[in-house]
Design goal:
Structural class: mainly alpha
Strand content: under 5%
Number of helices: 4
Shape: flat
Distance between the termini: 36 Å
Length: about 100
């Protein structure tokens, strides 16, 4: 998919110079490598400090899960476009995930 987007941008871009094409291609290569770099950084942190890394990961996932749960619950009950986040509840979920599970 990234290659087809890069190809589209290279051939349908106003600046069709080789420098512009190289820049777009390099940008997509860097974007494609980001997940691998993030995973390598995570593995490095996990090896050097496993408990803190697992606690931080768990706290993050618990927090994201609580935000999604609040959003889903409010959408089902209210049928409105208004969303109010209970930040204290998110904080409690983060603490539970970081301490209790992590």
């Amino acid at each position: 998919a990234a290659a087809s987007v890069a190809g589209f941008l290279m051939y349908n871009h106003f600046d069709s110079s080789p420098v512009a094409q190289t820049t777009v291609t390099a940008m997509f290569h860097h974007m494609a490598a980001l997940p691998l770099h993030a995973y390598d950084a995570y593995e490095s942190a996990l090896a050097s400090n496993p408990v803190a890394t697992k606690a931080a990961t768990s706290a993050t996932v618990y927090s994201i899960g609580d935000v999604v749960a609040q959003y889903t619950e409010q959408r089902q009950l209210d049928n409105q476009n208004h969303f109010s986040l209970d930040q204290n509840r998110v904080l409690r979920s983060m603490i539970a995930g970081g301490i209790g599970h992590g």
